[in-house]
Design goal:
With 311 residues, the protein is an all-alpha fold. It is 76% helix and 0% strand. The protein is built from 18 helices and no strands. The protein has helices spanning 6-20, 25-39, 44-57, 62-74, 78-91, 97-108, 112-125, 133-144, 148-161, 166-178, 182-195, 200-212, 216-229, 234-246, 250-263, 268-280, 284-296, 304-310. 39% of the residues are buried. TPR repeats lie at residues 62-95, 96-129, 132-165, 234-267. It comes from Fulvivirga kasyanovii.
Length: 311
């Protein structure tokens, strides 16, 4: 079979090449957008370059601004991310997901108020978003600003949408506990133990609540369960020791302090509290030794007792 003449081969290649190119500026912009979108999780800088080329061709390409903003956000180039999110919103005010990403960006910049406002704008436009995550994010911002009641309200909204979401229940519990709403915190911890009855931490938290409420026996009961489920958690013994000490059972308290220190010998607070327990048992020498050790480890809460008691 005769080979094609060189000239014919050249023109055939040129014909195929020309017709393989995007036929319009719009097609060319879409071509670069697709390449940029593909590279977002593969090569972020390449994605930015392709999306920038798309924008240079079509300055009204909303998705290119939005996704380039995401690339900038992931690369910690927050001001550039916000500029792109702003431009995308100007082009399409209905693209409400932008408010979530603005919130993420402000949060990473440490601008909690702006993050809170951004998440609120998203919620206003999507009040029944079934992921419920927007309420959690806004709740976290309120929590960081010290508005524990507002945080709980947002967590409650999230739980109405996803009542069995364990981490949402946990966030609500923490806000209640930090707001010293111990009875409600206890109910929240009860829900957590029903959702995940095998996790030792939830019983530990219940023990902490009972201790705060001045109920050492109930606290000890919960710490017992926590220790059964995880016998190597030093904090379980440490806090149970404090509950025993609270009710005046100093021998059992000392045993638990000893166990906690065996499991975690580098925590100065353990020695300091054991020192207090030893002093209550009239062991001044042991107490002074423990307070000295606590100071060596950088814990000084009870260190003033060294001068008052030990010298």
């Amino acid at each position: 079979m005769a080979k094609p003449a060189p000239a014919k081969t050249f023109f055939l290649f040129l014909f195929l090449f020309i017709f393989s190119l995007p036929s319009t500026a719009q097609d060319s912009a879409r071509h670069f957008f697709n390449k940029g979108y593909y590279n977002i999780s593969v090569n972020r800088e390449a994605a930015i370059d392709y999306l920038t080329k798309c924008i240079e061709i079509d300055s009204l390409y909303t998705e290119a601004f939005f996704h380039r903003g995401i690339c900038y956000f992931k690369g910690s180039r927050y001001e550039q991310a916000l500029n792109d999110f702003d431009r995308a919103f100007e082009l399409n005010p209905g693209l409400s997901i932008i408010w979530m990403y603005r919130g993420f960006t402000y949060r990473n910049m440490g601008k909690t108020d702006e993050a809170l406002n951004s998440f609120s704008r998203y919620i206003t436009q999507n009040p029944t978003d079934t992921t419920a995550y927007s309420y959690i994010l806004r709740g976290k911002m309120k929590y960081e600003l010290g508005d524990f009641t507002g945080a709980v309200e947002d967590y409650d909204m999230a739980l109405k949408l996803k009542p069995l979401e364990e981490k949402y229940q946990y966030y609500r519990f923490v806000a209640l506990y930090d707001n010293e709403m111990y009875r409600k915190a206890l109910s929240a911890a009860d829900r957590l133990t029903k959702i995940n009855p095998d996790f030792y931490g939830y019983y530990f938290y219940k023990g902490n609540i009972y201790s705060k409420m001045g109920k050492p026996d109930s606290a000890i009961y919960m710490y017992n369960i926590s220790i059964i489920k995880n016998y190597q958690n030093a904090d379980g013994y440490f806090y149970r020791a404090q509950a025993y000490q609270q009710k005046g059972d100093l021998n059992k308290a000392l045993e638990d302090y000893n166990t906690a220190i065996e499991l975690n010998p580098d925590d100065g607070s353990y020695y300091s509290k054991r020192g207090n327990c030893r002093l209550e048992k009239s062991d001044k020498t042991g107490a002074c030794k423990d307070w000295e050790e606590a100071g060596t480890l950088g814990y000084y809460e009870d260190f003033d007792k060294v001068k008052k008691v030990c010298e």
